[in-house]
Specification:
Strand order of the largest sheet: 7-8-9-10-11-12-13-14
Number of helices: 26
Strand content: 5-15%
Number of strands: 25
Helix content: 25-40%
Radius of gyration: 30 Å
Shape: globular
Length: 903
């Protein structure tokens, strides 16, 4: 047995001690007898130690490493290690030096040498190797979240308790997860919560804010302290993410406040400041991630709240702390422009970061472009570190994803196209952590099921510019160890790579949104494919999160007119997706006879490849039907008895699509509990209701009914019968009933909504046309200038539960209030009204047209405060008023959309 002596500072930081321990264990398993140096080493005495020697040191602090460098015994052929960088060197006198640019660099150097010792079963005799991360922050996000809401609490609001989150208290799970993270050289884990402070600190001034029992508080604090210490010794920051301004339920009830506050109040600012100070004092090894959008009107109050409340509390908490590194503070750019906030904050606190979503809430492309690329570039140019957030993955759920080459290109794009320097990675099934959605006797853990997802992203977050040929060999070898042979590894890698192209391509060309409003694997309705405007599509999907290309109707119009196509076409993507899906199934079948271990997981992976193929085939046949129907629409131009041959072909394609969807349903009934991890009302595509329509078996009857309706209407046309929808073109439009209310705001006045009246108290902008439903209602007018420049709140008192009709101008100009979107604000549909009930329901002289939305309010005093931007209040109607959604100009719900064919 050979002897190895380890030299290091006896007062090493916890993460250095952890690295040394990992190296010690690797050496012992390789057959070495490991000893510790008895006296500190110097350049003059280290040779007196017999046998092999390893010295481990932070070059910023270690006298011995500095001596080796100064006397040129230790030289670097790469950049000298800085920060998390390290260098391994064989030096004269049988000495191997591990030189780190920081304590984390030393840790990673120890882990790298330990890996090499484990692989070769010996200590390398000649080594000169330096390495450093290309991204500053690298780590996963874990949600202290549930799949559904808990009324009266709202979205994101879950006190931390053992019954809600038993996994949070599972130290064995955390050790496994943290060990995976340090192995992948992660340096941060992001914990997401709506308002975590009321579960972790108790304030003398606000005891009512505590949302857990004293026993639960003690357990939470003990657990969180253990977690931050365990993470710290692995070189990992724990960063706590919270929303603003969310307040605890008992605090809100005592002070008569709503759970979500749009603007700072003295009491909420004082409460938050003291909460953050107490949290930082208790947990100095934790950072903070701040979301100033959604509830808070961040464009107006963001800088004030961030600097005067959050940073003030942080600095108060750090005042007496002796932490070696100041914790990171990360500002999300979600639903806010963060530049002004950062510029105001940097003089107060230098360790600031910004964050923005990579492809929205899906994975669609490694070439993001347009305004989203501009947003990232702008954030990357600030005096901060910018992070990309690979978020939600609504189009990948629930299947396995492990296409290393796609992921590598994404990380290269993050660095070079988006100018980012950090990664924030969601698990594939975020809302149900730690469990995977697979149907199994014992729930699978995402940590094991999705190992390749984590491994690939973090490998390329460390270095995205690895040689592709070498990377292919790396992943083949990695998969070979997992499944028993190199031949199996190669075939499985091919299956992962091919399947990894399917969902990104399908969503970016045919989807409604890149947000979690859509669960792509559950399919889409014909209306969503042929009349997406009715379903509020999110243009950023194809304008930023996709390569240049054509949407379905645009493609059909160009085909009919003989115009040249530009970029990706629907036909290109259908062809690609079918090829990728076929290649994936063939590759996984090629591996079957070659797999000798982990056969259960291989069968699950095989099931995923089959499911993805069924999904692709179902989409392709439905898209072919959509192309035929859109061709019919633009060919017959209202003469609906013509070109029925196109509809006959479409019916055949729809039948094929439904057959493949039945195959998908049959397979997933055996393999999956559900398709989407977030099962709240925010899920609206393909069908409203994430809880009721969370499995293919729930959606199948909807698609069956759709095909039956299509066959019925086609048969009517073939027999010369006009379908009911065409007979009832002039269904009567009923004027809305009015609900009584009192206007309490002195800066506003009431008026009757009718042609010719002015809609603002300043200027002479008057109505030139309005939908019949609105005529005669009582509106509220106020200063357009005040609302446009600063925002304006209206106080009303409702005598009964009512709907308030709000008008949004069809313009992106910043003077107008913008409709809240579920892509940017999870609370956008809390009061209903997400979709307009009357598109272009109001026309004004020389101004943009106006869409009418209906928001639900309870009886009593209410504040209409939507933030900066001018808008209209066009009436108050009873909560049970029936409302028929329509486009007043008959473009999105008229007969020409052909939605009547499927309904």
């Amino acid at each position: 047995m050979k002897d190895v002596t380890l030299g290091y500072d006896r007062n090493s930081a916890p993460r250095v001690a952890y690295g040394i321990q990992q190296l010690r264990e690797a050496l012992q398993k390789a057959g070495y007898s490991v000893h510790d140096a008895e006296v500190p080493w110097t350049l003059e005495n280290y040779r007196s130690v017999q046998g092999l020697k390893i010295y481990i040191g932070n070059r910023q602090e270690s006298d011995f490493v500095q001596q080796l460098e100064q006397r040129e015994v230790l030289l670097y052929h790469t950049e000298a290690p800085e920060g998390e960088g390290f260098y391994l060197a064989s030096c004269p006198g049988s000495l191997t030096a591990i030189s780190g640019g920081s304590d984390s660099g030393v840790l990673y150097g120890c882990l790298e040498l330990a890996r090499r010792v484990s692989d070769a079963q010996r200590l390398p005799s000649d080594i000169a190797y330096g390495d450093a991360p290309r991204f500053s922050l690298r780590g996963p996000a874990i949600g202290l979240q549930k799949t559904t809401v808990e009324p009266p609490r709202q979205t994101y609001e879950y006190p931390i308790t053992t019954d809600r989150f038993p996994w949070f208290y599972d130290r064995s799970l955390w050790r496994d997860f943290l060990d995976m993270m340090v192995e992948q050289r992660c340096n941060v884990v992001y914990l997401w919560s709506g308002h975590p402070f009321s579960s972790l600190v108790k304030l003398a001034d606000y005891p009512e804010a505590l949302e857990v029992t004293e026993e639960e508080l003690s357990l939470n604090r003990e657990m969180f302290r253990w977690l931050t210490e365990e993470a710290d010794r692995r070189g990992i920051w724990v960063v706590l993410k919270f929303y603003n301004i969310h307040i605890p339920l008992p605090f809100a009830q005592k002070h008569g406040l709503k759970l979500h506050q749009p603007k700072p109040l003295q009491i909420t600012s004082d409460y938050y400041k003291k909460s953050i100070a107490a949290f930082v004092q208790s947990f100095p090894n934790a950072g903070l991630m701040v979301c100033l959008g959604e509830a808070l009107q961040g464009q107006i109050y963001g800088a004030q709240w961030f600097n005067e409340t959050i940073l003030a509390g942080l600095l108060e908490g750090l005042k007496d702390s002796n932490v070696k590194e100041k914790p990171p503070i990360i500002l999300r750019s979600h639903a806010i422009e963060p530049q002004k906030v950062i510029e105001a904050a940097l003089p107060l606190y230098p360790n600031l970061y910004t964050e923005a979503k990579y492809n929205g809430e899906s994975l669609t492309t490694y070439t993001p472009r347009g305004k989203w690329q501009e947003t990232h570039n702008r954030l990357g140019s600030l005096q901060t570190i910018h992070i990309v957030n690979v978020h939600i993955l609504a189009n990948l759920e629930p299947f396995r994803y492990g296409a290393p080459s796609f992921i590598q290109k994404c990380m290269q794009a993050a660095k070079y196209r988006l100018k980012a320097n950090g990664l924030h990675l969601y698990p594939l099934f975020f809302w149900d952590w730690p469990y995977a959605p697979d149907r199994a006797e014992k729930r699978l853990r995402q940590l094991e099921r999705d190992w390749i997802w984590f491994a690939a992203w973090f490998r390329y977050a460390w270095n995205p510019d690895r040689d592709p040929a070498a990377e292919r060999n790396y992943w083949i070898d990695t998969l070979a160890k997992r499944f028993g042979s190199r031949e199996a590894g190669e075939a499985i890698l091919d299956a992962y790579e091919a399947s990894g192209e399917c969902a990104p391509k399908l969503l970016r060309r045919f989807g409604i949104t890149e947000g979690n409003r859509q669960t792509m694997s559950l399919g889409m309705t014909m209306s969503q494919l042929t009349n997406p405007e009715r379903h509020m599509p999110w243009p950023d999907l194809w304008e930023s999160q996709s390569p240049q290309g054509e949407r379905l109707e645009e493609y059909v119009i160009k085909e009919l007119s003989g115009e040249p196509h530009i970029g990706e076409t629907p036909v290109d993507i259908m062809t690609d997706a079918q090829r990728h899906a076929q290649d994936a199934v063939q590759a996984i079948e090629r591996a079957r006879s070659l797999v000798s271990i982990n056969s259960d997981e291989f069968e699950r992976l095989t099931g995923d490849m089959s499911a993805i193929r069924h999904m692709v085939e179902s989409y392709v046949h439905k898209i072919k039907a959509a192309i035929l129907i859109l061709t019919y629409k633009h060919s017959v131009k209202g003469e609906y008895f013509n070109r029925l041959d196109l509809l006959e072909e479409a019916a055949a394609e729809l039948e094929q699509s439904l057959a493949r969807y039945r195959d998908l349903t049959t397979l997933t009934e055996k393999t999956y509990l559900f398709a989407n991890s977030m099962q709240t009302p925010q899920r609206k595509v393909p069908i409203r209701g994430g809880l009721d329509f969370r499995h293919w078996s729930a959606c199948l009857p909807v698609y069956e009914a759709e095909l039956n309706a299509f066959r019925k209407h086609l048969q009517e046309l073939k027999t010369g019968t006009l379908p009911e929808a065409l007979k009832n073109l002039k269904a009567p439009i009923v004027r809305y009933q009015e609900a009584p209310f009192h206007l309490l705001s002195e800066h506003a006045e009431m008026y009757v909504v009718e042609k010719g009246v002015e809609v603002f108290s300043d200027g002479d902008i008057h109505i030139v046309g309005c939908a019949e439903e609105l005529s005669g209602l009582t509106g509220i007018r106020f200063s357009q200038r005040q609302a446009g420049l600063h925002g304006l709140a209206i106080e009303i008192e409702l005598q009964q539960a009512s709907k308030v009709l709000i008008g949004y101008f069809n313009s992106k100009d910043e003077q107008w209030l913008q409709v809240p979107s579920l892509e940017e604000n999870t609370h956008a549909d809390d009061r209903g009204g997400y979709a307009p009930v009357l598109r272009k329901g109001l026309r004004l002289y020389a101004y943009p047209s106006v869409n009418i939305h209906a928001f639900q309010y309870e009886a009593g005093r209410q504040t209409l405060d939507f933030g900066k931007g001018a808008f209209l209040v066009l009436g108050v109607i009873p909560a049970d008023q029936e409302m028929r959604q329509r486009d007043v100009e008959h473009k999105n719900d008229g007969i020409d959309t052909l939605d009547w064919l499927y309904e």
